[in-house]
Each structure stands twice: as C-alpha cells, then as structure tokens.
Amino acid sequence: MSAEQLHVAESPADRVARAGLSAVTEPGDERIALRVRDHGAEATWQAVLGGDDSLDRSRVLQRRAEYVDGAEVLERADDLGIRYLCPGEPGWPVPLDDMAATLDYADVVPPPLGLWLSGDGDLAALAESAVAMVGSRACSRYGGRVASDLATDLALAGRTVVSGAAYGIDAAAHRGALGVGGQTIAVLACGVDVPYPRTHGQLLERIAADGLIISEVPPGSRPMRAWFLARNRIIAALSAGTVVVEAAPRSGALSTAGWAQKLSRETLVVPGPITSALSAGCHRLVRDGAGTLVTGVTDVLEAVGRIGEHTPPDPECESRPIDDLLPAHAMVREWMQVGAVETVAGLARRTGLPARTVATALRELAAAGWVTREDAGWRLGSTISPLETRT
User: Fold this and answer.
1) Alpha-carbon distance 176 to 129, whole Å?
2) Residue ranges of the Smf/DprA SLOG domain (predicted)?
3) What pLDDT sits at residue 220?
4) Are residues 194 and 220 in the same domain?
5) 297 and 360 share a domain?
6) What is the rounded distance in angstroms from the CA atom of residue 116 to the CA atom of residue 265?
7) Are 26 and 142 contained in the same domain?
8) Which one of 94, 115, 194, 284 has the lowest number of neighbouring Cβ atoms within 10 Å?
9) Average of pLDDT values for 229-247?
10) Which of 209-213, 264-268, 286-290, 375-379 bottoms out in mean pLDDT, i.e. has the lowest?
C-alpha cells in the first residue's frame, strides 16, 4: 500500500478519530500528518489520549483530548448542516492528494486530516477548475478593482475563484466572482460557522449559497494567528495557480505563493506602481523568478491551462458585461471603491463628470443591478442585467 493510500479514511472509526484530532491538534502539523500516514488516524488518536511521549507536546494534546469526543464533534456539525470530508472519500478533491505526496520530501506541505464544509457545492468538481487569488487586506483602490475585475473574468471563463474571505483583495475576489453568478470557495482559519471577519457575515452567506466555505478546524473554532498561514497551503493546493494581486514585503499572501511553489503550482503576479509598498512583495517574486507576471485574464488562463484538465475558453471571444456599458456609466462604476458607500459629489470629483451625469448614471446602473442605493449613498451591487443601449 502506498504512502498516499495510508493517508485516506478507511472506516467510520477513522472518521471519528480524524474529527477528534482536528479538534486538538494544530492545523498543518507535519508530525501528526506523518503519524496518521504511517499508523492510521485511530492509532494516532489513541496515542494522543494516552499521552504518548513520541508525540510533540504530548501532554498538551492529552489534556485537550480529555474534553473531546470525535463522534460528538461530528454530530454537532451535522446538526448545523456542516459536512466533514476525509481523504479518499467521494467528493475529496484530487489536487489535495499532492500534499500527502510531499511527506517524503524536504519541502513538506502537510495534508489536512479532513475538511469541514458549509454549502451544497461539490468540492471535487469546484477544484477541477480552481484559481486562487490572494493579496493585501489593506489593499489600494487599484488592487481592489483589479482583483474584482480579474475574478469576474475568471468566473465568466468557468473558473472557480478560491480565496480566504479576508478584508481587501480576498473580499474583492469573492465579490467579483459572485457578481456574475460565478462560483467561489472561501478557505477559513476558523470554523466554517464562525463569521470572520465579523463584518463579512453576509458575504460568507452568499459564498455558502453559491459555492463553499471550507476549513480544517471544527465548527465553533475561533481563529488563531498561526492558523492563517496554515490555511494558506489549502488555498494553494486546491488551485491550479495562485494570483497575487498586491502584497507588501511581509504580507501573508506571500506564504500562499510559497506553498504554491512547493506544490509545483503556478504563481502569478499582478504588477503595481513601483512607488507602492503594497506591490513590493509582488515585484520581488517576479525579480527572484518565483512568479510569472500577468496583466489580465488571458495571461492567467494560459498559465493555469498548462496544468488544469480543462481547455480554457478564449477570453478574446467573450465579452464582459462592463464592455457593454456607456462610457459615462463605465467610468462611474470603475471609480466606485469595493465595499465603500459613494456619493454623487464624491464620484463627480473623481471622475470629472458633471454631478447630473453621475446621478443619472447611478440611477440607471442601479436599475441594472450594477449598484445599489443606500441611505448614505451608493454601493457596488452584485446582480447584473443588461442596460438599455442608447445612441
């Protein structure tokens, strides 16, 4: 039996053991992954319960395990409508098997014990065409717009957009895909039932409705700082390529790029202004030969097409919804910041258009679903209908 085969769930008891282990061990624990591969999840769980000295931090794990019953963890998840998917089970995404294969090499990318899923999406099917998009939480207007537009184009090309549901680039990527009816996966560093960040509760609900929310930690788990870097390896492994839109020199997004490189995935980099610290990490990736420069969806599809099983459609043969907008409407929409509430006066100043023209454009964009009206102004919308063409 191969090392990869030893890593799969083999029985209901194995599932219970994996659920228990997911509640007491740290995500991405290389030694636990090796132990499960070599001895199985059940034996590993018994070793944890017994305080086996061969385990790292055995006493800490033993104390945690005293209060955990894997069967109860699974039952609580089921009551919440949350699924638990283990390696080797129907629906397990094939790309993640590459993680188990790294356990015999120096550049280890520890595989998850299993994944908790919120949503009705088929993870295996979604992963077949997945592209990850990551970047700065405190993104610039440029970065947010690029992420949103690129995610829109990827969704229109039939690709699943994978990200981490954080502020900034992550949120822009998810919203860009959802805005055109595309599918997206959010990989969290907390339980799939924990809205984090809290202000993204509605966004996460939309992602679960049209795609999937996944995590390797059980429902109810609050996020821990170290878990964010660990979850980045799942984002990279699920996807044929990772697009880094904006990243400062110490950005966590660069860790996702690092995981992608270890897994022989494409690392794709969006350039930014040479004066912007938010793009310094991106430029370093390209300078060091660790990333490929991309300036649009055509570049991304060409890169991931070399890995993916599906032949990507030619984006030059497709039109984007925004291409059909009148110039004034397109300008107003392009100058609206992701997640911000805009005013007519503010947009008039930034676009240079008369306030009356901006107001008319906003009303007509709202009628088509491009924007929504709020008490304090206007916000980018999600439902898009054709605008009436004028001459």
Assistant:
1) 17
2) 109-304
3) 97
4) yes
5) no
6) 24
7) no
8) 94
9) 97
10) 375-379
For the record, the structure tokens of 289 come out as 């030969």
User: Distance of alpha carbon 20 from its chain centroid, rounded?
Assistant: 25
**Range of the structural domain that residue 217 is part of:** 123-317
Place of tokens 């009628």: 367
* 181 and 306 within one domain: yes
In Å, what is the CA distance from 269 to each residue of 108, 134, 229, 285? 24, 10, 19, 8
Q: Which of 317, 333, 350 lies at the terminal end of a domain, its last residue?
A: 317
Give the β-pairing of 241-244 and 212-215: unpaired
State the CATH number of the domain containing residue 313.
Answer: 3.40.50.450
pLDDT tens digits along 86-119: 999 999 999 999 999 999 888 899 999 999 999 9
Indicate if 226 and 294 belong to the same structural domain: yes
Q: Which residues neighbour 131 within 8 Å (Cβ) at sequence distance 6 or greater?
A: 154, 159, 160, 161, 162, 239, 240, 241, 242, 243, 300, 304
Averaged pLDDT score across all residues of the chain: 88
Contact 289, 323 (CB under 8 A): no
Q: What whole-number distance in Å separates Cα of residue 289 and Cα of residue 293?
A: 10
Q: Is the pLDDT of residue 21 over 50?
A: yes
150 and 17 part of one domain: no
Phi, psi dihedral angles at 64 (to 5 degrees): -65, -45
- Segment 70-99 shows an average pLDDT of 96
Residues 243 and 298 in one domain: yes
Residue 154 contacts residue 173 (beta carbons within 8 Å): no
pLDDT, tens digit, 9 for 90 and up, residues 292-325: 999 999 999 999 984 444 333 343 444 445 545 6
Q: Which residue has the higher pLDDT, 385 or 51?
A: 51
Name the pTM for this structure.
Answer: 0.77
Residue 36 has pLDDT above 70, yes or no: yes
